[in-house]
Amino acid sequence: MSDVTSVELRALMARVPSVEQVMTSADFLALTEAFGRSQVLAGLRGALDNWRVAAQAGQALVASLEVPQLALSVGQGLRERARAKFRSVFNLTGTVLHTNLGRALLPDEAISAVVKALTQPSNLEFDLDTGKRGDRDDLIDEIICELTGAEAATVVNNNAAAVLLTLSALAPRKEVIVSRGELVEIGGAFRIPDIMSRAGAKLREVGTTNRTHLKDYDEAIGPRTALMMKVHTSNYAISGFTKEVSVAELAPLSRARGVPVAVDLGSGTLVDLTQWGLPREATVLETILAGADLVTFSGDKLLGGPQAGLIVGRRDLIAKIKKHPLKRALRVGKLTLAALEPVLQLYRAPEMLAERLTTLRLLTRPADVMRAAAERLQPVLQRMTGERYEVAVEPMFSQIGSGALPVDVLPSYGLVVRMADGKRGGRQLLALEKVLRGMSRPVIGRIADHALCLDLRCLEAADEAELVAQLSGRGGAQ
Ligand SMILES: *Cc1c(COP(=O)(O)O)cnc(C)c1O
Fold first, then answer.
1. What confidence score (pLDDT) does residue 404 get?
2. Atom of ligand 1 nearest to the CA of 299
3. Is any ligand 1 atom within 6 A of the Cβ of residue 262?
4. Rounded distance, CA 285 to CA 283, Å?
5. Ligand 1 pocket, 267 CB below 6 A?
6. Is the per-residue pLDDT at 73 higher than 60?
7. Residues sharing a CB contact under 8 Å with residue 215, sequence separation 6 or more, in sequence order
8. What distance in angstroms lies between residue 257's CA and the mean position of ligand 1's atoms?
9. By mean pLDDT, which of 196-205, 274-283, 426-435, 467-476 is the weakest?
10. Rounded to the nearest whole angstrom, what is the distance from the C-alpha of residue 195 to the centroid of ligand 1?
């Protein structure tokens, strides 16, 4: 369109309706009911301002000033603003404990406990026996000690906080001995040397990257030594000519020299996972029995609970940790405690754990189950993607995630999408990945070997029905 003359422009501007008049229309009263007057008013003013700018450029239609048109565009803007940024997705990455997708999913018992904690007052810090002020740790330290064999326990925001607090409380301006083979970096800027300096402790490295001996620890102990610390090498393995000193080997030295051993176990598992065919991980109980004075571990990794950091061990050391001012800053909220207790309760019936603990149920799903789901979903996804893509049912490997060895893989099944013409089609695969990621409940897969892989391990029945509806266009893709 060409530029408008000033006469035409004035005539156009005169067509803009009065805000008050539009606001009292039935359409806008309905919007006001849903979103509140101030948001709707701001939305309408914005829409009219945009129209005026467009009119000056000769690009506005008088028809879009009609009330139903205005209501449609203002309503759409308001609905977009109101949509939560924090959303559910489908985790088809094949990584069960995916840190970026929220790690462990909680069992029903934990969900209802959280709902209660959110909607009803609780005895969070109130001792029901004495009627006096209580300590929030008292709600769960007993069951944690029962399951780990420790004397005492405390809970903080996450395992990084647990390590930071332990070092801050027990080793300020003192030395902490760590093997060079265990100076780990966990994703997201958790590095042992950095945590150490943040906590005001001095790192005393011993041994070499591949080999550390008991005498390395022995020779490093001096008057300024506060702790010997072992760190689970969660995300890598050193193989070949190696030597690591176990907790059991360190324990006699620790007792003889009076230097406690703290172990950062990372993914703190409470039961022997090999009984379900999963990789071997030292349990917290075994680590305590081997002689660790303190163990720190995550609540939302293999334990299968909410984000939390658990510190268990010797009563005197836990008492010192609980007295440190950082404990107050790193403490957990009531929702975490509400969710953690029922998860820990499930461990009292280990025979039923693989059924009832969501994380373990997902980790132990047989490949056949995923294969059957893949066969049901194949035609649905094929119809959605169209002829340019070829959707196949194929075996693949899932990962545990979150600090279990990346080499420990679990046989699974899923859908693999490639270009039907046999070409690599990197850009089209990325485009399809983006479409799936843009759905109302985003579908997150992974691109590997010129294919888009959707591992169905983490898709249980209710989610499968929802995914089918969404892929068939009944779930509201946008
Ligand atoms: C995962 C991990 C951490 C960090 O735990 P968060 O709960 O994520 O804070 C620390 N140490 C080790 C060895 C880990 O595996």
1. 63
2. 7
3. no
4. 5
5. yes
6. yes
7. none
8. 29
9. 467-476
10. 12
Q: What confidence tens digit (pLDDT) does each residue in 361-418 have? A: 999 999 999 999 999 999 999 999 999 999 999 999 999 998 766 666 899 999 999 9
154: Cβ below 6 Å to ligand 1? no
Compare 326 and 9 and report the one with higher pLDDT.
326
**Residue/partner pairs of 241-247 with CB below 8 Å, 24 or more apart:** 241/210, 241/211, 242/181, 242/210, 242/211, 243/210, 243/211, 243/212, 243/213, 244/179, 244/181, 244/182, 244/212, 245/179, 245/212, 245/213, 245/214, 245/216, 245/217, 246/290, 247/287, 247/290, 247/291, 247/292
Whether the per-residue pLDDT at 458 is higher than 50: the answer is: yes
Give 403 Cα–ligand 1 centroid separation in angstroms.
Answer: 7
304 C-alpha to center of ligand 1: Å? Answer: 14
- In ligand 1, the atom with minimum distance to the C-alpha of 184 is 13
pLDDT at 310: 98
269 lines ligand 1 (CB under 6 A): no
> Does the pLDDT value for residue 456 go beyond 80?
yes
Is the distance from the beta carbon of residue 234 to the nearest atom of ligand 1 less than 6 Å? yes
Ranges of H-type helices in 179-269: 192-198, 214-220, 247-257
pLDDT higher than threshold 90 for residue 250: yes
Of 184, 230, 234, the residue with max ligand 1 atoms within 8 A of its CB, to mutate for a pocket test, comes to 234
Ligand 1: residue whose CA is nearest its atom 3 = 266
> Under CATH, which number does the domain 108-356 receive?
3.40.640.10
Using one digit for the tens of pLDDT, what is the confidence trace for 275-311? 999 989 999 999 999 999 999 999 999 999 999 999 9
Taking residues 313-340, report their average pLDDT.
98
Predicted confidence at residue 185, as pLDDT, reads 85
Round to whole Å and give the CA distance between 108 and 294.
31
Q: What is 90-98+362-471's CATH number, 3.90.1150.110, 1.10.3720.10, 3.20.20.80, 2.60.120.620?
A: 3.90.1150.110
Residue 202 has pLDDT above 60, yes or no: yes
Containing 355, the helix (H) or strand (E) segment is helix 353-356
How far is ligand 1, taken at its centre, from the CA of residue 310, in Å? 11
CA of 162 to the centre of ligand 1 (A): 9
* Domains in the chain: boundaries: 6-82, 90-98+362-471, 108-356
Atom of ligand 1 nearest to the CA of 267: 15
Nearest atom in ligand 1 to the alpha carbon of residue 161 is: 9
pLDDT band for position 5 (cuts 50, 70, 90): confident
Q: How far is the CA of 125 from the centre of ligand 1 (A)?
A: 28
